[in-house]
Fold these 2 entries.
Entry 1:
Amino acid sequence: MSDSVDTANAGAGGVLEAVIGLEIHVQLATATKMFCGCELSFGEPPNTRTCPVCLGLPGSLPVANARAVHLGLMIGLALGSELAPRSIFHRKNYFYPDLPKGYQISQYDEPLCLGGHLGAVRIHRVHLEEDAAKLIHVGSSGRIHGSDASIVDFNRGGTPLAEIVTEPDLRSPEQASEWLKLLRSTLRRLGVSDVNMEEGSLRCDANISLRPAGTSGLGVKTELKNMNSFRFIERGIRAEIARQAEILRGGGQVVQETLHFDPASAAITSLRSKEEAHDYRYFPEPDLLPVTIDPGMIDAARADMSELPAERAERLRAEVGLNAESAQLLAFRGELGDYFEAALAAEREPAPEPQTLANWIAGELVARLAEGEDPAGSRVEPGAIAALVGLVGAKRVSVGAGRQVLDRLVSDGGEPEAIVEAEGLAAIGGGEDLAAIVAAALQANAEAAERVRGGNAKAIGPIVGHVMRETKGRADGTEVSRLIHEQLGV
Amino acid sequence: MSVTDIRELSAVAAAAEIGAGSLSAGELFSAYRERAAADRVAGPDGLNCFTWVAAGAPLTDVSGPLAGVPLAVKDLFCTEGVPSQSGSRILEGYLPPYTASAVSRLTEAGAALLAKTNQDEFAMGSSNENSAFGPVRNPWDRERVPGGSSGGSAAAVAAGLAPWALGTDTGGSIRQPAALCGIVGLKPTYGAVSRYGMIAFASSLDQAGPLTRDVCDAALLLSHMVGRDARDATSLEFPYAIELPTAERLDGVRLGVPEELTGAGVEPGVLEAFHASIVRAQELGALVSEVRLPHAPHALSAYYVIAPAECSSNLARFDGVRYGMRAEGALELVDMYTRTRHDGFGAEVKRRIMLGTYALSSGYYDAYYGRAQRVRTKIAEDFRSVFGEVDFIVTPTAPTVAFGLGEKTGDPLAMYLNDYCTVPMSLAGIPAISIPCGLSGGLPVGLQIAGPAFCENRLLETAHALELALDFDGTPARV
Amino acid sequence: MRCTVIGRDEVLHVARLARLALSEAEIEPMARELSAVLDHIARIGELDLTDVPPTSHVVEVSGALRLDEPCVSLPREVVLAQAPAVSGEGFLVPSPQA
């Protein structure tokens, strides 16, 4: 999947390869903040969800939220990380108006989770930290005359975050965005976060460097900050790869810095030069004791975990009997998987064959819904599609008639059997009726019948078509074909 | 009872009298309030013990065990709606929206908030000369310092302006002023008392404790302070109730005298009083031996890395945004920060912020902070090993008696040496009490007794027996 | 590590990190005082501390965690009451971009 920058563009250096690592901040789905009991804010009026702790008032002290640790452990388990029996909160010291204490409580050299992988991408670490507050730029103000001013809203300050850092295993913008989607569906399935990028509960930074393809060293990397949609991530990374390639092509050196991608102008601008101002003076947070993880906490985290996409795909393949492609599709689009399993669980008679049911859901049904629509929200009850696929499998409804029934289910809902009854869509069986229609079709297509008798199998088409027209698609194609051959004596 | 009489009562005695109905809590409060307010009004002509004095008696449930006995509280404890400034210009007039856990526990037990006491700015100092609200004077000699940083609390108790007071101790800030003012000061085991609402100096060392006229008062006040607080992750459930001490003998109690803290550097008059009190202890049946604390001479160095490092971070929140002062006229953010902090902090606080920032900065962490934390480990090991041989360690509390105002302000290092005998216990997180053990040149000398973590009851019993035998007369200090 | 000398540039660098303005007259005394203290502190450099673990916390208990249960937040007028500059709903600061 390696995405190489074209030789022609890379110049004398030959083919360049992008090396990309991601840092993802995930807002954890707790009720309260990381270190105090204030409820998380979802658009409340500014500065109404604060207390002495998250305002950094003199004398206040942080106490870590047990649920945030629990959710962090679930993430670690999902990513196959090593869960540190003892991890430490550090203070990351810097001044900014959105940082009330003058330091952020984060984890440094002893994080909650180490290592792991998701798909083909290795995880470096997962740690817990608190979010910053929100700065609202208000332009010039009467109070601070002659200068632009900002207003600080501390509602968001102290919201619990898990930071997930990958190894630099990604090689292209598309791959980065695809992998991030997998991570998002994994986190959503876990229930640890609502992973909404637009609302900022999932935020992504990318570390990007280029190197000659086939080499294993790492070039100078830049950090692209806070991209808040999958599209921006792809575009931002692509733009940064192009920028670096151009520098290298011109014989220049990439400077290590933090960058901002403006999706409107596609421009990349430097936020600040890292080496200049930032000396975070990390040291162990003396107000918090080390977080010790006992087996009970790990068991509790494991017990709370629903099945992850990769595990679900394997189960759908091995236990339900789906082919690998369907299993993966239903697992990674969890809503389709949920719908599929609900349909199976409806235990309709005749029972639908699972692979056929998966094909109908992922093919016929999804094609009839709006893009990305969850079938659970449609008028088609999972039990109804199970019943329909069962009827088709038992040849009580032909495939063509089945599609008509599905049309009706999508538009009006209801039960397939009732629709079949009302619309007269039941398959015409192998009895006298169908034999007579076939006989009539052979008479009407005498020339074709002669060619079939002479050994031309393809000539059967017009005859079958005639039967289908006569039966309005209710006849079973296999049965029609059998009757034609029987009556022609071949 | 006359007003003078009731101020002679110890806090334990006063609480008992109120409980028995022979003394009115309101009358007691008024007696102290009047004297405290007079000192406040006198400004530099008084002792300057207080930064705030209650206008009247607060609503207090006198049926509680502390029976409405007035309490003076060091400025750095947050008290809702009452100025809590930690002796700093940057917090001048700051009214917190909440009350520190240690203070609310005491008021819930019936203590009545009398006053907030002057202190070294952000508890950084050993002479109370670093207060933005002026120096505190020593009631034994107005031209001398009361010690620090809980200098206002110590001077107020010694002068009879408050029956007892709350202080905090980071490297000696309760014990040293108690010694210099001739009263009792106890630094509990780290974690015994909640730090929630104490404006932090150095989080891994700060601990609240009582400053009292006698050991029984210290036990009573402490008994209502200890215990786990859900708001302080480093606080602990105290393993037993603190009892009022009754011991009069020290039979079989093993006292260790560490040569590292009782030799050169301690002035002769202090050593003399110290050794005399050791003789009294032996007369009470104590077994005295020499012990070694090999890393104690390095404690001060480790302390002056760890405490400034933590303070440099703890004081970053004073940025002129949410509370406190902001420099006028700053048009630009960094300018607003740097000028606010320049104007708002005093010289010593700035020095320690610089020192701590330097010690944590890139390239220096391992040489300073990392090493200091390892020295801390060795110091704690020294104590553990010694407490296998003896029950308590005894030392002079401070190397000198109260020194003159201004005498050491020009030499930070000389000032830091005041903490030489108290800092090792702070680094190890173990409890230590200072009791007055005699006079040198007419000025009080403190005896420090330290024991293993959570030995407070035994520590108080030992201090009580010695206190009885030493029979120190604190009366000259009454003003 | 003896005779640590902090120079003017280093003092200014540390002051910048600590967001402390220093007047011209304050720089030299600060450098001198810090050097004296650091020189004393440097004695811990003489100790052999190989394999000695650092102590961050003297309290030996495992992390006391808080249940994820909401508390009542402060009313906004209380939150803003002590601020040097407010504007309507929040704290007013010079814009970081300015």
Note: Chain C has three helices and two strands.
Entry 2:
Amino acid sequence: MKIALRICVLVFILVLLEGCWDRTELNDLAIVTAMSFDKAEDNQIITTVQIIVPQNQGGGGMSGAATSGAPHKTTIRSGVGINISDSLSKLQRIIPRKMFWGQCKIFIFSEDVAKAGIKDEFDFLMRHPQPRERAFVFVSKEKAAKTLEMFPPIERSSSEVLRKLTELKIGINVTLEQFSIMLKGDAEAAALPLVYILPKAEYAEPFQTIPYIMGTALFKKDKMVGQISEKTTRGVMWIINKIDDYTVTFEMNGKDDFVSIKPVNAKVKLLPKIRGDKWMMEIQVRATGDIIQNGTDLNPMNPKLLKKMESAFEKDINTRIKLAIQEVQKQKKTDILGFANAFHRKYPKQWEKNKDRWDVLYPQVKVTIDVTASILRPGLINSPGGIPIGEVQQK
Amino acid sequence: MLDKGKISAVQMSLLLYPTVLATSFLSMPSLAAQYAQNDLWMTGILSSFFGLLTIYVATRLHDLFPKESIIQQSERVIGVLPGKIIGILFFIFYIHVTGMIVRMYTEFVSGQYLFKTPPLLIIFIIVLLSSIAVRGGIETLARCAVIFTPILMFSLLFLLLLFPSFDVRNIFPILSHGIIPVLKASALPQSWVSELFFISFLLPHLTDPKKGRKWGFLTLGAIVLSIIYMNLITLLLLGSDTANKTYPILVVFRYISLAGIFENLESLLLAMWIVGNFIKISLFLYVASISFAQTLRLSDYRPSVFPLGILVIVFSLWDIPNFSKLGEHLRYVAPFEIPLVMVLIPVLILIIARLRGIRTSKR
């Protein structure tokens, strides 16, 4: 009797332990790799998902694929609704499998959605348990769905292309969580990378191209207020200390002689100061790098000439930063440079008093730039290559 | 004694660590950040006060009446009838708190992972499992703790993988709003740490009772360090966004990404959550059953475990219609009710014992 009871309990537990309710199998799932948001009529939103097309195993698919171009490994579907949740529920009607977002690492907003404000969409992305905080966020210059429609020749999908590009750290890259932190921060401003579509090569099949990152979209609160060029973005990256493995080419002696330095590594500090009513910011840059190309006739092995090169290098960095300051601080008046946080940290009391008028204060902050750059190594040759030894300026 | 089991002081320590931390660590940084903002890492240091007090009181009472728990001690000190009232209060309170813990456990599991599984089933399974462990006695619990607590503590180290994303500047400015918000924020960890009073129920089982106080304080030290560690990591990663999260530690775990290998670690967090809460719920249920049996002078506590388990299920569903009610309870009720029972009453009993001139009894 007792044994029978125990067996009953065991069987009962066995049934419970399976966890049948939330069982998910791979072939019941549609794996979403990227998601984009566009504007539709009547203030509605189009949500587009990029889904991995499950590939058939074997079958000599490789040789066939080689003749007919890259196989289409992803597909896109769109749904229209009043907000994301609504459009997703509409979207599920045309996707036979349950959408799984564990691999969704890219979110793209189209420019018109960004300009109208992305508060609602953002709330969804942070609140819903499925989107991952480490996913990257972009603003698309063209229709956002178009960027997902590409079939890249090298990578598996266009979302993979964007993810790999961000890993190279060539532009500002922003995860969902970082974006949320920026918007919650003192400056109430944020920056997101802009995505364009690369014109396809002439011989390529239709849609066989990639989205790429260029320039930056500026946000005030949740609304996009403008954009800055790639060049200015580089300057901004200096200020926010994101320079890493970077190439700088600068002019020497002002006569079309160029020197290139790579990899440039930099340490940047923001040193805020308040003197009476005046708010000042000193940007302190310490940069180092190696010569990889020397178009001048100067021999960098001579410390005196190297000093000259270094000061030209410093001047170039200075110009880059000034350009960014001019555009971001004076013209666009958007604090994506982290000035507000810097002031708050150093002067909490003054900040508390003045935080409401930061919008007015920010463009008036006086910026000084202090650059110290050093060139560490000359590369594999010492005196400039390609010119006779007599023409090299040794001293 | 109802339970003849013997445990070592280290085992006691391993039992107490998850009992304080297992549920609370998940949302602790955001609850603290709502008051203290970027000073939240200090709350850990300040919260140790009630812990020190409650361990001191429990061990003093144990010196006066060794081999007895607070239930029997209070009967000795303030008389049978008032002692019984306190005993009943204790056991009802423990059942109520266990219910709350089970509910918190379930909210996280069904809200973030098992969307379709009925919550009642999740509640039922964990309470059933805990009840079986409790019927096994204190030794069984201690051995479970020896296996599970290191898993919990070791997994926390995975958070260090986030170091490339840390922004140390998030700590500044320090104390820009003064100390008051930090004190407010430490009210909640204060109350969790006072759960260390359970040492009163464990001390009689120790093979080496003299080490009890030392290991009690060591446990407190480990807990305080863990609280500071988790608060600091959350602050360094999330900064001003911390206060906005329901489960900041979940976000932090999801954010881990190292070399493409260590990713999607939230399943690890779920494993930690389950083993930690299993220990926590078991010890609470054990203490509740012992208090019940001691108050009513039963000869065995085991028959009452399953009925009390059913009561726990009922308490976990009662009066908490949704998550925001649960949050309200955690923020405004728990910081007062837990220290009231776990700190204030024992302190009063100790003072009365002193006033009545009860000396350290013969050993």
Note: Chain B touches chain A at residues 111-118, 121, 125, 169, 172-173, 176, 237-241, 244, 251, 254-255, 257, 264 (CB under 8 Å).
